[in-house]
């Protein structure tokens, strides 16, 4: 019996070799019909004998190309047309459809082999790619994903490349960035003024300058990196000075996993991340003999390491035989430079030379950052290689929602049907360039996913620029979502949980419903509403944001809270070094409530302990004091005492006894490492204790952990161990950052639950 079917495949199925896979499968089974890309995904007509058609459908579901991500396969029977041959047809557009775009894919093994084969016509060609690898999201301007709608459009393929592109049996069939040295993008080396530097071998000339200690701005997939020799102390310090980045660690790039092992501890999960198709920056515990300048990551026990993910990186690292600093091409707090003219303007004075190429980057995308916790990856910055891959939720959104995210580590989230498209890392919305990147990113997502939001979700903080953006859009409904509720719901969402949970949201700053700054929160919540069941006790935040940059202020606040003026009698180095005149001014600010909001922030408690123990009195990047406190922690199992009391139906966790215990240890001469360990133990214990109390009150046995404090591997591991041993089911982040980079997902889910569809239809 001869049958025919029309089959539609949705998912990441364009630019990943899906049509040649279908074509070759149909021909193997002797089937007729056609396949094409369209704005729904991949659509095909297939007909032939019933047994062959059955084999075709089974293999379609199980044997898709490695880079494809199939969301759904829908088939319907149709009348056969007598088609004997199978063909690949041109792309077609359909109204109101969309196709998820593939993230960038690291250079595949086949292309790497060709890259280093002197007999291959693409030998050392910095833009080699195929259907299984290469640029995707950063070069796509519109859908469907075809070459004319990418930044490869200006490059007309030569006869050989065109033959590969048109041959369904070739792995470069319809690889949209396909090119070679004859017809494709080219490298050029420029000096600081943007003038070409004559050289027969551009990569060789760059390597020579890196060996001389020069700093080179290198154009990559999603923007520019600033590169220098990581073993040249002078070069690294020069880069720090030029970039105005005194303390924050630099990322490193090495040639292979073996070179990574010389820098840090690489477990199986870390190796999979380093050598996989995404190739993020992976945080590795630093080896004592790591052969890099101390200035690469001052005060850190971890190094951020990545492997080459473009052909240019592969050639550069293989031939240089160096460890390279590879940090974002920007001045601190600015977005990464990605346009050539912008790079020459903004990075002038930072870089000595510019390694550029003539393939335009359409959308800037930073490197992703991942660390391994409990043998599983935890994404800390979700960007290149992950975005714009959607999260698929167990429900359908009532309408498209744009969630605007937070002020720091901003991402936005655009939803459609069951999909939540979390954006690439935008950064801190603190300057015009980042706001423009935010707005450009939103416009790009709306275009490539053919989606116009019917509702906006935003944080409650009135001064967040993302909130101001939402409030200025008075043409559609807007829904405000409390910061920490969004954190917890984001964690629930990526774990496909909608039932009530005990949410532990520990971070630095979030606007509370009472107008105070929250950050040490225990919520009882679902994906619509929440109750603040417990929190850390409020303390003053003298100077507001100034106290975040000067952790010594929080240490002094806690000391004065516990000991009053008797703090001056404590035989502590911190007290001895404290400027009494400055403290008197701050004390007056607190007394008169001038620029001194109240905060329950766990992040500020970490800051206080870091400063009190002499680890970090002044922070030069966000979270520095807490990071260095974690790095300093040694081996010890003791827990400081802590207490709580009931206030207005909520439990307030009191830190006084913790501070008293730390002070006693300091007076006894206990080491920083032991005190840092005991403090981490104590925070984990008070979290477990409070969750146990809330379980008794509510019967809820699931805990969700979110917020920037759970980037802390030591804290997260200990909390997980305590809660699991106590019979809790624990939800943690894996695919979405626990910091504010994951906030927009939670905002979108909460807004969806609260959205009144009658408003949309009015």
What's the structural blueprint in terms of helices and strands?
Blueprint: E1 2-12, H1 18-28, E2 32-38, E3 41-49, H2 50-62, E4 69-78, E5 86-88, H3 109-115, H4 159-166, E6 187-191, H5 202-211, E7 216-219, E8 224-229, H6 233-243, E9 251-253, H7 257-261, H8 268-275, E10 281-285, E11 302-306, H9 311-320, E12 324-328, H10 340-346, E13 353-357, E14 369-373, E15 376-381, E16 391-392, E17 401-403, E18 413-416, E19 419-422, H11 432-448, E20 455-459, H12 465-472, E21 478-481, H13 483-494, E22 501-511, E23 517-525, E24 530-536, E25 539-540, H14 545-549, H15 552-563, H16 573-577, H17 580-592, E26 598-599, H18 602-612, H19 624-632, E27 643-647, E28 650-654, H20 656-667, H21 672-698, E29 702-706, H22 713-725, E30 729-731, H23 743-754, H24 757-761
Parallel strand pairs: 2-5, 7-13, 9-11, 10-14, 17-20, 20-21, 22-29, 24-28, 29-30
Antiparallel strand pairs: 1-3, 1-4, 2-3, 6-13, 7-8, 8-12, 9-12, 10-11, 14-15, 16-19, 17-18, 18-19, 22-23, 23-24, 25-26, 27-28
Helix pairs in contact: 5-9, 13-23, 15-18, 15-20, 18-19, 20-21, 21-22
